[in-house]
């Protein structure tokens, strides 16, 4: 292979960069395996903590969580889980105060939403044992209100591998890799971000001529321009924002990432705050924005 | 609902903006329905042309295609289809010359890869009739070489709706919409872009400290930074680029979109050409880039 004249990175160095944490499948542990107790889970390397529900670091993300079914704000829909962070809960799973992303474990699971690295999910309890239920992506992390009115850290997890196109990629890529670079059968590809669009969003983008309402960038691809429709109050459970123009911004891909992660916030007077710098949102007379949705967006990120 | 003081866009105006073409499901036509001939397909509104294999416009994208099984460069894997453009084919489906995206129908199907709007796929032939096989996303469009050595327009289509998380969203959103805004049962959400990452890509991003190798942007979200790993020779069939550092760039989301769509090209001396402006690719001594992959990337876009 020809190559540009730069020193090659040693494979071992590259591995060391990414393998300090233990993400993904654990070799030899198939989905559905049941463990008698937390010690067994720990020894198998599936969940490397005996007490904590979340294993991981703020810097790298979470590698696994235990879903005990005892917390009043958790929702388990099978392939979709709404998970609650830790802190201010009594022994019966009742919330007794506020939570925050300052907590390192709560922050770790939020980091997984940034990195796209999958999280092992274990369901179970002391009484019934613990079942390894496969890999999930943390597709959203936000501050929400629990049933008792406290502010809690919430996460939306979706099961990996239910998308056939991803499975297809995994297979074809595994065949390409040098032997020994990945454990056999280990998942290689993860989803980092899915950009969805709607018919209504197309209309909004057209109004703004595909120019970002925050930074004014217009991404041009020949005669075509590319923009993304960002829902202010997110679509889908549990936010259930509506798919209407008043809830959509026309953004470039970069500002969309920052907006979805809360690094861009927009005040009711349409002042945009991005990393401490304020600019004014670009508007168009035929596209009304509802400040109620802006307030919701701010509330889940700050 | 409170709102910022701008005139509301009339729903009818918004509809007119997006409904000139007939994208998505056709009301009353379920997947799997068989039509006797092209006339029946036409009359049902499933494929609104009697001869052409592609219906659509360069500006808006394709609304449907017919896959006849007679073309030597087509590949049909069920939920994944590698489709060939039109032009320079004889009556037996053999390629007799080059194709190009200058052809309006070939351009239309490529536009669908930009918009994310789904395409109806019909499989069949004069002898056996035509079956409506549901909606597919055009996830990639490129110039490739056919079995006879001619340059042909190629497309990768993936079936919609196999991703459970999308299905979940569709259900919850449909429930939110004002009555009459969408035909019942019509698909509302489409996938525009999936950003996938790999372990190897994580290593590359770390080397560059999550700073874009093209435009030097670093997307900061609190203490975390966000970047995307862009495979130069794409992963997955039919490109089958390898998941190795030499085939990966660390890019911001915007430059990733432009690179994947061919609006950013990189020469062997690492000069980046973006909308006619040239800059130098940012490099790091520990991250070697293989020029063979850069040449492949240029070849599929120009």
Automatic annotation (TrEMBL), chains A, B:
<dbReference type="Pfam" id="PF13391">
    <property type="entry name" value="HNH_2"/>
</dbReference>
<dbReference type="InterPro" id="IPR015947">
    <property type="entry name" value="PUA-like_sf"/>
</dbReference>
<dbReference type="Pfam" id="PF02182">
    <property type="entry name" value="SAD_SRA"/>
</dbReference>
<dbReference type="InterPro" id="IPR003615">
    <property type="entry name" value="HNH_nuc"/>
</dbReference>
<protein>
    <recommendedName>
        <fullName>YDG domain-containing protein</fullName>
    </recommendedName>
</protein>
<feature type="domain" description="YDG">
    <location>
        <begin position="24"/>
        <end position="159"/>
    </location>
</feature>
<dbReference type="InterPro" id="IPR036987">
    <property type="entry name" value="SRA-YDG_sf"/>
</dbReference>
<dbReference type="InterPro" id="IPR045134">
    <property type="entry name" value="UHRF1/2-like"/>
</dbReference>
<dbReference type="InterPro" id="IPR003105">
    <property type="entry name" value="SRA_YDG"/>
</dbReference>
<dbReference type="GO" id="GO:0044027">
    <property type="term" value="P:negative regulation of gene expression via chromosomal CpG island methylation"/>
</dbReference>
<dbReference type="GO" id="GO:0061630">
    <property type="term" value="F:ubiquitin protein ligase activity"/>
</dbReference>
<dbReference type="GO" id="GO:0016567">
    <property type="term" value="P:protein ubiquitination"/>
</dbReference>
